[in-house]
Every structure is written in structure tokens, then in C-alpha cells.
Design brief:
The protein is mainly alpha-helical. The protein has helices at 17-30, 42-49, 53-65, 84-108, 118-129, 133-151, 156-163, 165-179, 181-196, 200-211, 214-224, 242-249, and strands spanning 69-71, 77-79. The two termini are 35 Å apart.
Length: 250
Amino acid sequence: MNAHVFHPEMLDHRLPKTAQVYDLLRNAIISLRLQPGDVINEKELCAQLDISRTPLREAILQLASQKLINIKPNSSTTVSLIKLKDVIEGQLVRESIEYRTVRLAARFYEKDRIDPFATVLMRQKFASEHGSVDEFYALDEEFHRIICECSGYPNLWRLLNGAKGQLDRVRRMAFPAQNHFPEVIKEHEKIASAIRASNEEEAVEAMRFHIESIFETLQILTKKHPGFFAEDSATITNCDSVEDFKRLYA
């Protein structure tokens, strides 16, 4: 583990620590500052963050339940390899929730409110122009969180976020690998436009187009970063098309 990844200033020590440590570790894993296979040294982390072992252990257990960390009793605790099946599971959950929330967002969008998408889209364009991958990804997440908020069911974002950790690592890796920043922004603009127009069918179709590129993404990343993926990722090489892939995994 990189000894300089964490420091006490990352935490607000007036607030409960477990949730903050969870967010720090999850973000580090998603962004690959903590890479698949890296050892989590609990003693070192506690020293870096100036915390007791309890909030760290609770955060690690939560991440382990989401398959982002692998705990071996009486052995090491490591960042888990990316399993293809877990990625697809996250994708299936994402599709189920996001298709529904974007429909509800279009149905119940309040036209007289301040546009919640405008600032996010503007900041995404700025991040794209400056090649700020971390900022672009964070704003991508914020865009989708706002959709849940507009749907009237904001707590769905927390449920979705807990289910898509493995998928998020793939998505985060894909941004610099595929360099699709302008395309992502155009897709977000189309989704936002359909929501503003209360066009449910167009919103769902735009969302479907936006999030169904996982096959191509996995093909690229499993070749580019083979050491990050578990053995089951080799099966993607047997798929010649999206249809083959869906028959196997969806």
C-alpha cells in the first residue's frame, strides 16, 4: 500500500469516523490509488489517519461485504481482484434501478425548480477540457445521483452505490482508457433534456444507450490491465459480440 495515500486532514474528526473512512477507502479503490492485490495494512492506516482500529475495521468489513476487499483470516487483507461476474451483477442492478429512476425523474420533474443538471454538465465540460479524470468521474456519479433525487426516491442512490463497486472500478478505468469524455457529456445532455421535457420513453432510451457499453469496455480493460482481473475475466475472450456476452451473463 502506498504510504502516502492517506493523512489525518482527510477526516473531519468532529464527525463519525466509520463513514468517512469507508468513503476514503472506497474512493481510493475505485480510483486505483489502491490497486487490486494491494495489501491493506490496518496498523499503518490507523497511524496515517490518526484513528483507532474500530472505525477502520468497520469500514473494511463493509467494503468486504461489497467484494471490494478480501479478508483472509489469520492472513492478509487485500484489495480484491475484479471478478467479471461481480461486474455484471453490478451492471444488472444498475440497469434495473437507473431505467426506473430516469423514467420517474422525467415523470415528476419540477420545471419551475432551478435546473439541477446545468451546473454538473458545465463542470463536466471543464473537467473534460482539462483532462481531470477524478473530477470527471465524481461529476458523472453526481449526475446519476441527481436523477435518483429527481425521481422522488433519493435513497435509491445509496442502495445502487453499495451494489456497483466492482462495476465502478471498471467504469473509472474506462474514462482515461477509452477517452470518451465528449461522448459521455453528449449522452448526459440527452438524458437531461429528456427529463426536462418529461419525455419518459426518450429518457429511458437515452439511459439505455448510455450504460449498455460494458461489453466493449471489459474487452479493452481486460487486455490493458490483465493483472487487475480475476481468472473468470478470461471468458470474455470467448464472446464475439454483445449478444454472446448477454447470453452468458445477462
